[in-house]
Design goal:
It is built from eight helices and twelve strands. By secondary structure, the protein is an alpha+beta fold.
Length: about 400
């Protein structure tokens, strides 16, 4: 078999090119510290690297979510702690107001501080997060949750949902609590009532009230009352009739009662003051219940301290009011304590999730390093060997290329 001179030259060049390519690859690995520059260099390892990087990016996002959760829950816990302090001060004032030696002026002064503290509490109930969302509005973060209506009563305008944030691939944590469950639907020690003006009323009719006979209110529950305005009487005066909600029966003979703004009517142990303009067909609905908001509890006490006198009847009413107020304040603080315990449990869960992500991230980064990074000792050794092989190939090529029959003639 004949071997042409050109074949000898080409084979030598090809050998040197192969060794040069491998040497360049090893030099690039030593320079970058990476085992491969493109997925084609090691498809299996490259695929694993992509998966690990995706996992690390996801865990990084979870850790950011956890930081948001922890920050907002810490804010909620702080606000609830401040609310408890305010309620504790109102409780102290409630006990102080039961002193039989106090004058009407003394009680009015206590009522003034209670009103101030109630506004402070209302401000806490409308707290915002760092992002500007209301903390206790449920899922309606842009809606102020506690607002006063035309009658001056505080109404809850949020919803009962919770905003949740994903903290692991399979779990999420609530980052807030609805103010309804915390401050509004607080169990009361006795039956309470609320007054609602129907949306289709044609006038500005509103009502406010307080309990003057607890036994009568307890007997009415769970029924309620409807105050309905009739057609103008023969003298052109507005008038109303009070009926039971369940059977529409007239209560205590309260039928066709002439109405003047500011007048009060007492029915089933409830004294209800009516304000505003009333038109035929307008209605107020009085609902009894077993819950009462913390704001109503405080404001009813302040109102009683300001308006009740020294008569035996007023003093008995005040004594009953103070007793129920203390019970309702205790229930309100228990409600807040329960929510704070839930918040604390969520904070612990967030901390555990964050610790898990950190541990897994360490393992993932270690594996990523093993897949991507070179062993410098082995790589430098291989670089020296490939440099030696290239030099040997070059020297061999030089000797072979110099061989010729003409040298022997």
């Amino acid at each position: 078999m004949r071997i042409a001179t050109s074949q000898v030259y080409q084979q030598g060049i090809d050998n040197m090119m192969d060794v040069s390519k491998q040497l360049a690859k090893t030099q690039a690995q030593v320079s970058s510290g990476l085992r491969f520059a493109t997925p084609a260099d090691d498809p299996v390892a490259a695929s694993q690297v992509v998966q690990i990087n995706q996992e690390l990016a996801l865990r990084d996002q979870f850790q950011k979510n956890i930081q948001q959760v922890s920050s907002q829950l810490a804010l909620e816990d702080s606000v609830l702690g401040q609310a408890t302090d305010v309620l504790q001060r109102i409780r102290e004032l409630t006990i102080q107001s039961g002193d039989g030696a106090l004058t009407n002026q003394d009680r009015a002064s206590i009522a003034t501080e209670i009103t101030t503290r109630t506004e402070e509490l209302l401000s806490l109930m409308n707290s915002r997060t760092a992002g500007g969302e209301y903390l206790f509005a449920g899922s309606r973060g842009q809606t102020q949750p506690f607002q006063r209506n035309s009658a001056g009563e505080v109404e809850f305008k949020g919803d009962e949902k919770q905003r949740r944030v994903q903290v692991t691939a399979s779990s999420s944590l609530a980052i807030n609590d609805s103010g309804r469950g915390v401050f509004t639907d607080v169990p009361s020690v006795a039956t309470t009532f609320s007054i609602q003006s129907l949306a289709d009323n044609t006038s500005s009719l509103i009502g406010q009230g307080r309990v003057v006979d607890q036994d009568a209110v307890d007997a009415l529950y769970p029924d309620g009352l409807t105050i309905e305005f009739n057609a103008l009487d023969a003298n052109g005066m507005p008038n109303f009739t009070v009926r039971r909600t369940s059977d529409n029966r007239v209560v205590d003979g309260l039928q066709n009662i002439v109405y003047q703004a500011g007048d009060s009517v007492t029915a089933q142990g409830m004294q209800i003051a009516l304000y505003g303009v009333a038109g035929p067909g307008d209605k107020l609905v009085v609902k009894t219940g077993q819950t009462q908001s913390v704001v109503n509890t405080a404001e009813q006490l302040a109102d009683g301290l300001s308006t009740l006198g020294q008569s035996a009847t007023d003093q008995a009413t005040l004594t009953s009011l103070i007793a129920s107020t203390l019970g309702n304040l205790d229930n309100a603080m228990d409600s807040i304590l329960r929510v704070r315990a839930e918040v604390g449990a969520r904070m612990n869960s967030a901390e555990s999730a964050e610790s898990l992500h950190q541990d897994v991230a360490i393992v993932s980064k270690d594996l990523l390093s093993k897949l991507q990074s070179i062993d410098y000792t082995q790589a430098i050794s291989q670089l020296d060997m490939e440099s030696f092989v290239l030099q040997a190939a070059q020297q061999s090529y030089a000797r072979i290329s110099g061989l010729s029959l003409f040298n022997h003639l």
